[in-house]
Amino acid sequence: MLKNALTIDVEDWFHATYLGVAEKDWPSCEPWVKSNIHRILGILAEEEVKATFFILGWIAERMPELVQSIAAGGHEIASHSYWHHQVFRQPPAEFALDLRLSIEMIQAAVDVPILGYRAPAASIGKDQKWAFEVMAENGILYDSSMLPVRTPLYGVAGLPRFAFKLCEGRLLEIPLTTVEVGPIRIPISGGVYTRLLPMSFTEWAFKRVNEVDGQPMMLYLHPWELDPQPPPLGRNVITRWSHIVNKGKMEARFRQLLSRFSFGPVRDVFSVELESITRIQDEKNLGSDIISR
User: What is the C-alpha to C-alpha distance for residues 257 and 57, in angstroms, rounded to an integer?
Assistant: First the structure.
């Protein structure tokens, strides 16, 4: 059975970009991430599954023991930035500083190499090719920040659906997974898509990507998505809906996917520590011209 990549974006409910909670107010918000991460770690231990945890540096600095608990479970540790700023709003120097600070804070908690990065809110687009060079210069071997379909919030139309190399082979881009239904690409990577789409469709999409495309899925979740109780989200109806839709069903759906498909951390699924990476498409043939436009 083909193994899929399971990833957890370690951030708290108030870090969600679309909620608009000011950074100065973060310390006064009630933190839920610790209990939610321990819930996830318990589920993964029960199912004997390892994952990649993309950790926010802001959390690693304040909760080093949480990072240590994740590492103690044998899971891969990667970066989710420090401040959870959208990359397309940052100049290169600011992005580089944020990336280095996130790595520093994570490694202050656990002395492990940080091989992977995921941008907040899939915020690397076609105009941020410079970000890949910054990652490579800071020892990042793979990135998983791009969605190969345009949505109202993010995504790059025409991007290759599956992993490809950048920076002269020094960096591996692993796009968030989509499934093709006729001429239409549908995001199915996780998060709100797993909560919103019927489980019958999600399982069909997993099988299609694994068996027809012959590729691994890139599944991601946020810790707050497995908490059935919504945090205080304000009065914006759309924001509240997108943040809490089907949260009460999410743990059962997560367990169902873990029981029916095979999962592992990104480093294992994509063999990122090896010089020869299987299932990877060559940059010169696919995608680099789309990214650089």
Answer: 29
Domain positions in the chain are 3-292
Q: What angle do CA 233, 202, 225 make, to 5 degrees?
A: 25
- Greatest Cα pair distance, the chain, in angstroms, is 51
Between CA 126 and CA 176 the distance in angstroms is 15
Question: Which helix (H) or strand (E) covers residue 5, if one does?
Answer: strand 3-10
**Spatial distance between the Cα atoms of 141 and 132, rounded to a whole number of angstroms:** 10
Tokens of 54: 């993309």
Q: Which amino acid is at 262?
A: S
**Residue in 1, 6, 52 with CA at minimum distance from that of residue 190:** 6
Cα atoms found within 13 Å of the Cα of residue 44, Cβ hemisphere only:
28
* CA dist list (Å): 31 to 15, 59, 223, 230, 239: 10, 10, 11, 13, 19
Per-residue model confidence as pLDDT tens for the chain (293 residues): 899 999 999 999 889 877 788 899 999 998 999 999 999 999 999 999 999 999 999 999 999 999 999 999 999 999 999 999 999 899 999 999 999 999 999 999 999 999 999 999 888 988 898 999 999 999 999 999 999 988 766 778 889 999 999 998 899 999 999 999 988 999 998 888 888 889 999 999 999 999 999 999 999 999 988 887 766 665 555 556 566 666 778 899 999 999 999 999 999 999 865 443 333 334 433 344 444 43
Q: How far apart are the first and last CA of the chain?
A: 38
φ, ψ of residue 2 in degrees (nearest 5): -65, 135
Question: What fold characterizes domain 3-292?
Answer: TIM Barrel (3.20.20)
